[in-house]
Write a structure and sequence with these properties.
This protein is of the alpha/beta class. The chain has a domain of 173 residues: Rossmann fold (3-Layer(aba) Sandwich). Helix content is 48%, strand content 9%. The protein has a five-stranded parallel β-sheet with strand order 2-3-1-4-5. The chain has a two-stranded antiparallel ribbon with strand order 6-7. It is globular. It starts with 7 loop residues before the first strand and ends in a 9-residue tail after the last helix. 32% of the residues are buried.
């Protein structure tokens, strides 16, 4: 049996097109991305302690592809994963990072959390409450609206562990929205696979709201039924597919208001501008598209 050794990983950022990128790359004949896109293996102690064979077990669709890897934006938010990634995948693992205007990212994140029925506050109130919602990793990552946008602070940890040549940094607004086809060629080259004509007009994780809030809460929130199903169906990937099925059936499109330019500038100035300048230095790229 051929050994499964992932050789690339996309660490984020959340709400920056990583799911769409993963869905596109999954169609490539020489790229293996597991059915459960986010394994959380490097995030939680209880999973990481299970070892490399457990991690390899997620890649059930491996058929000898050259590029093998996963996409999980929680890894960027929690940089303790960097050392675990190096320990497990080696010092030469390739790392993709997609960054988005942190104000837009925070608002998109808020809308997603609101859609899931997990956020009772208005946007500004939710940002103010963020610092009081860090009792554990699972809670912290749900409400890390501004924290997930401190890219420079988080990337410093990864860049202290891995050399700069290991990284491919992409900017959502410039590389993904405006130049997706060329960017995909760059990604293919970075991963060491041939260029294929892949369908690129995918739109994953589009905005929407639940038709039935009771069904939404049953699927999304912790409850007795989910505890029973976890016992009956121990496969994390299978449970996630079942959950996605019910969510999609209970979803309806909705038009949500966008951030105004004034709101965006206020958020950048209040929370993000210093970290943006740090990020510019670390990735050696001008990010004025976010603040000018």
């Amino acid at each position: 049996m051929e050994t499964i050794k992932p050789n690339f990983i996309c660490i984020g950022a959340q709400k920056a097109g990583t799911t769409t990128l993963a869905d596109i790359l999954s169609q490539h004949s020489d790229i293996c991305i597991p059915p459960l896109k986010e394994t959380k293996f490097f995030l939680f102690d209880e999973d990481y302690k299970k070892g490399e064979d457990y991690y390899a077990s997620f890649f059930t669709n491996f058929k000898g592809q050259k590029a093998i890897g996963e996409f999980d934006p929680d890894y960027l938010l929690f940089p303790h994963t960097a050392e675990r990634i190096r320990e497990t995948l080696g010092a030469d693992v390739k790392i993709i990072v997609v960054l988005r205007n942190p104000a837009d990212r925070a608002y998109s994140h808020y809308l997603m959390t609101k859609k899931k029925g997990l956020e009772p506050h208005a946007f500004e109130e939710a940002l103010a409450e963020e610092q009081h919602r860090k009792e554990d990793i699972k809670t912290r990552k749900i409400y890390a609206y501004t924290e997930r946008g401190f890219y420079g602070t988080q990337l410093k940890v990864f860049l202290n562990i891995f050399p700069a040549k290991n990284f491919l940094f992409l900017v959502f607004e410039e590389d993904f929205l405006k130049n997706k086809a060329q960017t995909l060629k760059i990604v293919e080259s970075f991963l060491g696979v041939g260029n294929e004509s892949l369908p690129i007009d995918l739109h994953s994780n589009e905005a929407g709201e639940a038709k039935n809030e009771a069904l939404r809460d049953l699927v999304r929130k912790p409850n007795f039924v989910k505890s029973i199903l976890k016992t009956i169906m121990p496969s994390k990937a299978f449970r996630k597919n079942i959950r996605k099925f019910f969510i999609s059936k209970n979803q309806q499109k909705v038009t949500v208001p966008k951030l105004t330019e004034a709101q965006r500038k206020e958020l950048i100035g209040k929370y993000f501008i210093d970290d943006i300048h740090l990020t510019e230095t670390l990735i050696n790229r001008n990010l004025s598209v976010w603040y000018k």
